[in-house]
Design goal:
The chain is mostly helical. It is built from 16 helices and no strands. The chain starts with 9 loop residues before the first helix and ends with a helix. About 50% of the residues are buried. It binds protoporphyrin IX containing FE and copper (II) ion. The site of protoporphyrin IX containing FE has 24 residues, from helix 1, helix 2, helix 13 and helix 16.
Length: about 475
């Protein structure tokens, strides 16, 4: 592996992961508060529930994106000379966005959910002002601009170093006579693809944000609600997917350090990433299966692409990971276990997602807790597990010299076990609730639904304990790491 001797990008990335770790624990606690309220074990005002739900949704999606971006930036700086100041601008705009969003929610009372569906921000029924809604949307704009700036720098450098988009995507190998030896590293292909689709998503997001902002300030300026919904879901779907596809770069880069074989850009790998690029964008209509006004062809495309999009995902990453793991004895430590867990959780989570992408199923399941069920699987046990794995790897040297002398201490085992059992139980309770037709996004639950929420709360506590142990171990690692 290419080990950078001097690593100027490491500092800001390590700081990013401190922020992300602390924010994750806080937002998970928000999640627990919601679930406890649904269990009728505590009682909060419905208005506050929806504020917390908005902060949890926007904050978690943002944090997932942030950790994905940190992984992307960190590893791409091994291959191309990224301008460090760009990352600081990205982080600054991100944090500015967070301040605006939190202010809009907890001072302004905005509670229109992270999806800011038109015309909800403007129609609060007196709960929040249009100023609060505008502040929330401006927070998104700030984060979106930050992502654009970051991706443009990564994209620009990859295009320059690898012979254009085509070279960085390994198209000569995928669709021409290119040789494996000339193809770019696996993580470069992943970085180029995620950069392309995330830029597309963020640009759609920016356009609909600006339209919604104008509508808030000048109510006479009407936005087509169906068009707005399409644009919001292009943005939302792509953004959260991109966070996972960026985090996977950590798997491609770190697992080879354990197995000793680099993650090769094979022809299948290159072809699969090109399809991922296409599918991630084409599949978004699966969010609109309930909208009767949508043209049928778009919905059918969404359904079919939903089936197909699972294939490159599993072929590219999960299958190759299994092969790599079988090839030689792997040293299990916190980092490698969490990264492998991340790929497993991501793959497992795609199954209920594909099921929900079927039109007949979606008609019944869509507004039930089946939906938070599937995405919490590939977020808690997928993306976030990879982010925690990346954090453990960042402080691996300090951890190696830990007093126990072992690579995987008892505390590590306890943390990962707690997190896994908690995450599995918590998400299964969502799926079970969804299968029982319990609606999602309801602050107050009927008496016959409260025990499911109570059991889920117990598992949520385990997730929070596991996460806290990961973050503490990361902070201790940083403290013991002289050049952190
Ligand atoms: C201990 C961990 C967590 C707990 C207890 C938790 C709990 C919850 C609850 C109770 C809801 C509302 C369910 C409903 O619609 O009735 C929710 C929604 C949501 N959660 Fe989590 N969650 C956790 C972790 C995460 C993570 C790690 C992410 C992403 C990285 C995430 C992203 C979301 C999103 C996007 C929503 C949708 C909000 C909406 O419907 O507008 N959650 N969560
Ligand atoms: Cu989607």
């Amino acid at each position: 592996m290419v080990e950078a001797k001097y690593d100027p990008q490491a500092g800001p990335v390590k700081v990013t992961m401190i922020i992300a770790g602390v924010v994750l624990i806080l937002l998970m606690t928000f999640g627990l508060i919601m679930r406890l309220n649904q269990a009728a074990l505590i009682e909060i005002e419905p208005a506050l529930f929806y504020q917390i739900m908005t902060a949890h949704g926007a904050g978690m999606v943002g944090t997932a994106g942030l950790t994905g971006a940190a992984v992307l930036w960190y590893f791409m700086s091994r291959y191309v000379p990224l301008v460090g100041a760009v990352y600081n601008v990205f982080l600054g705009l991100f944090l500015l966005g967070v301040v605006l969003i939190l202010g809009a929610i907890f001072i302004g009372g905005y509670a229109g959910a992270w999806t800011f569906l038109f015309p909800l921000p403007a129609m609060s029924g007196g709960l929040w002002t249009s100023g609060a809604a505008a502040t929330f949307l401006l927070g998104y704009v700030s984060i979106g601009v930050g992502f654009l700036v970051m991706h443009l720098e990564v994209g620009r450098q990859l295009i320059r170093a690898y012979g254009g988009i085509s070279g960085a995507m390994a198209w000569p190998l995928a669709f021409g006579k290119g040789r494996v030896e000339d193809a770019p590293p696996a993580s470069v292909v992943a970085a180029m693809a995620s950069t392309i689709f995330n830029v597309i998503g963020v640009v759609f997001g920016a356009a609909v944000l600006v339209a919604s902002l104008v509508n808030l300030l000048v109510p006479g300026f009407e936005v087509d609600a169906l068009l707005a919904k399409n644009m919001i879901y292009i943005f939302g779907h792509i953004f959260i997917n991109a966070s996972i596809y960026m985090a996977v770069i950590a798997v491609y880069e770190i697992i080879p350090e354990y197995t000793g074989t680099p993650w090769k850009t094979s022809r299948v790998f290159a072809i699969s990433w090109s399809f991922v690029l296409l599918f991630v964008i084409a599949v978004y209509p699966h969010h609109l299966l309930q909208d009767v006004a949508m043209p049928a062809w778009a919905l059918v495309t969404g359904q079919i692409v939903s089936y197909l999009s699972g294939i490159p995902l599993l072929a590219v990453t999960a299958f190759s990971l299994l092969l790599y793991l079988r090839a030689g004895p792997i040293k299990w430590d916190l980092a490698s276990s969490l990264l492998v867990l991340g790929v497993a959780g991501w793959s497992v989570g795609s199954i209920p997602a594909i099921i929900d992408g079927m039109i007949v199923v979606n008609k019944v399941m869509h507004n039930t807790q089946w939906v938070p069920g599937h995405f919490h699987i590939y977020l808690i046990l997928g993306e976030i597990a990879m982010a925690f794995g990346f954090m453990a790897w960042l402080v691996r040297d300090a951890r190696k010299s830990a007093p126990t002398g072992t690579r995987m201490g008892g505390l590590d085992r306890l943390a990962i076990g707690t997190y896994l059992v908690g995450g599995a139980g918590f998400t299964v309770m969502f799926l079970v609730s969804g299968a029982m037709s319990i609606p999602r996004r309801w602050a107050v639950h009927a008496p016959e639904w409260t025990s499911q929420a109570g059991i889920a709360s117990l598992f949520a506590v385990l997730v929070i304990i596991g996460s806290t142990l990961f973050v503490i171990s990361y902070l201790r690692g940083l403290a013991g790491d002289k050049d952190a």
